[in-house]
Amino acid sequence: MQEDLLGYVPAAGALQGRVILVTGAAAGLGKAIAKACAQFGATIVMLDKEVRHAEETYDEIVNAGYPEPAIYPLDMQGATAKDYDDLANNIREQLGRLDGVVLNAAWLSAFTPIKHYDAEMWSKMIMVNLHANFLLTRAVLPMLEAAPDASIVFAAHESNKAYFGAFGVAKAGMNAYCDILAAEYDDPKHFIRVNTVDTGPIRTSMRVLNYPGENPNSVAQPAALVGPFLYYLGPDAGQRTGEHLKLARQPADASWPGGTA
């Protein structure tokens, strides 16, 4: 199934008319997912604190002739429950609907043993990588409940290993959170697909920062891994929910057959 989803390409216009929120959409995997979704007709809400990079992604999407996206600047480290309620209200007022959410934004400050972990840093890591995702999804769930084919996809990362600290705890917590959401919404009356995708190593700025000894050109580009996200966000996934897709490490020259993303 992994190889099938890596090579998955939706039908033209498969996401036409849908509104999809992507966190961390300014760069890396989030940018690749945002562009790929727009390629198949979705209107993207790009949530990111890096406004300049988000504007670059915006330009790339518009210049390609895809639906005009929206930029929503937000720092998930300091955002409050009201900030996410305001986000939901803005999407409802400006776009009228929400069909999908990609929980992609992540932050890993450093590999640190528990004995030496700074307590404030621990709290910040848990906020960005776990608690903020709860606040966001709670705020937008009413819109997803109203959508005819709603989906939540979480960009997972196997990190319950030594020195991953709060990042590992948050990622494990998010896997459990997605299981809980999938179970609660596995109901014909208000069905929402909830799945996770662990891409394995990809060429992102966060990986370069935390793996300084690794040749960044030895890992795959984010654009090569968008297939599974498109699948779970679109109608072809049907009632498949509660799945945790873990991909094997892809070669550096891997590519996605659907385009350049």
From TrEMBL:
Keywords for the protein's UniProt record, in alphabetical order: Oxidoreductase
Keyword check for Nucleus: no
GO terms for MF: oxidoreductase activity, acting on NAD(P)H, oxygen as acceptor
UniProt KW Oxidoreductase keyword: yes
InterPro entries: NAD(P)-bd_dom_sf, SDR_fam
PANTHER family in the record: BENZIL REDUCTASE (PTHR43008), CHAIN DEHYDROGENASE, PUTATIVE (AFU_ORTHOLOGUE AFUA_4G08710)-RELATED (PTHR43008:SF4)
Family: Belongs to the short-chain dehydrogenases/reductases (SDR) family.
Name the UniProt record assigns to this protein: Short-chain dehydrogenase/reductase SDR
